[in-house]
Amino acid sequence: MEHDNVYALMMDALDGELADYGRNELESHLRACPACMQEWGALQVVHNLFVQTPALSPAADFAQRTLARLPNQKQHVWTIAAIYISLLLTGTLPMLLGVWVVSTLGPALRQPALVRGVTQSLEKVLQVAGTVLSAIFSGVGEFVVQQPAVIGWLLVMVGVVSLWGGVFQHVLAPQLQRQSQTM
Amino acid sequence: MDQEQVWLEEARQGDKAAFGFLIEAYQTPVYNLAYRMLNNSGEAEEAAQEAFIRAYTRLQTYNPDHKFSTWMLSITSNYCIDLIRKRRALLLSIDEPLPAHPALMSEKAKGPEGQMVLSQQQEMVQSLLQELPDEYRETVVLRYWYELSYEEIAEMMDTTVSAIKSRLFRARKRLAETGIARGMVPELQEAAV
Prior knowledge:
- The structure holds two protein chains of two kinds.
- By secondary structure, chain A is an all-alpha fold.
- Chain A contains seven helices and no strands.
- Chain A folds into three domains: 3-52, no CATH class; 67-105; 131-183, no CATH class.
- Chain B starts with a helix and ends in a 12-residue tail after the last helix.
- At the A-B interface, helix 1, helix 2, helix 3, helix 4 and helix 5 of A face helix 2, helix 3, helix 6, helix 7 and helix 9 of B.
């Protein structure tokens, strides 16, 4: 008999589903085959060990602690509803507002004089912004050229702060955490 | 309607106390499955708690046509498999000595000798289970400690009956080989099936 067939019979025997014919077949094979006999012995030992080993229970207060961790379902539902409504409102209200603005101010916005005035105002605002930005950049450039030592000190300070941050994060913080855990 | 169905219905309405009765009724099977799978009492307790919390938050999806115990064990086993995968991803060493189960140290065992025998038995079972791949271990645990049929295990693990039979076949074969390698096999005896 093929060894896999023998194994199938052994499985049925362990499950208590082996018919008389199969039982005789398995017993006669086991008598003739020491290797299968050894495997059958091991299977029975492991099977009996598992069957006889009781289930393990958790600590006595497990149920209370689990109960304390359960989320509040009703509150959860209200929270989700509130988030949903607020999202709905934040999306819908601006849309309604936009439609109202376009419908009421639309005819006035189409006046040529108004369009021309708005364009001119925008141009002037852009010109002022350009002038301010160019003044700032030229001022910073002159400061860098005239006061290199100040810039150097600033760079040194940035370096010291970064280094301290790294040391604290990698060396001191884990030590403090370990100390707080042992206390 | 039996008591379990009443508790389930009340828990569905958000009654935590009713769910507390279900926790008390199923804490041992759920914890035992988690412990057999994870082989660590702390992780097993955390997994068992998480399984109950998941069940509570998903009670609306529970189909009363199936047994609550099967559904609960299915949640636990899926959570444990996820945990084992994450554990592997973290590359934690499995050689670290794991803490013994607190029950093995408790006064429940009958005297020091009984406690020692039980402790050794549990350790042997756990070490054998650890020899198996996750899916085989899950099948063996469900078959031996919960006496589930092949059909029930297949339904829980979302696979076929033949796949479960094959897993159990291979798992037992591997366990037998480990048993022989560890000298657990008795002397050659008269063939008695």
